[in-house]
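Work Package 4 report. The design task specified in the project plan requires that, given a folded chain encoded as structure tokens, an amino acid be chosen for each position. We show below one input record used in the internal validation round.
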């Protein structure tokens, strides 16, 4: 059962870190839009939803940690968890950028018509 808990915990921390990476990018996009004066409420809603998902997944990871102290030879799980968090943060960035591009408002700038000088 301990191996199943570790597997579920590893998957939960990987997904949590990925969601956190995407959330950070969406929040950065929201701050950019807020500064530009062109705010999209959907972007804030998606960021808040991903942040809630991140908290739930990190709580699931915490629940999957073993209750008893681990033996010294099982320290590989800590290193693997750390690598999963780093990998998830890096992978979440492009997902957040794709989400930002999908949720940002359309900017249709029209150039003035070309006229010849008189």
């Amino acid at each position: 059962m301990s191996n199943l808990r570790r597997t579920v915990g590893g998957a939960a921390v990987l997904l949590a870190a990925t969601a956190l990476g995407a959330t950070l990018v969406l929040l950065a996009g929201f701050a950019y839009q807020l500064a530009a004066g062109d705010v999209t409420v959907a972007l804030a809603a998606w960021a808040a939803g991903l942040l809630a998902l991140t908290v739930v997944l990190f709580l699931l990871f915490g629940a999957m940690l073993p209750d008893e102290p681990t033996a010294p030879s099982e320290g590989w799980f800590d290193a693997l968890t750390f690598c999963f968090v780093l990998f998830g943060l890096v992978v979440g960035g492009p997902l957040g950028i794709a989400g930002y591009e999908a949720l940002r408002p359309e900017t249709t700038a029209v150039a003035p018509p070309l006229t010849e000088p008189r």
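Residues 55 and 74 are 26 Å apart (CA to CA). Validation will be extended to a larger panel in the next phase.
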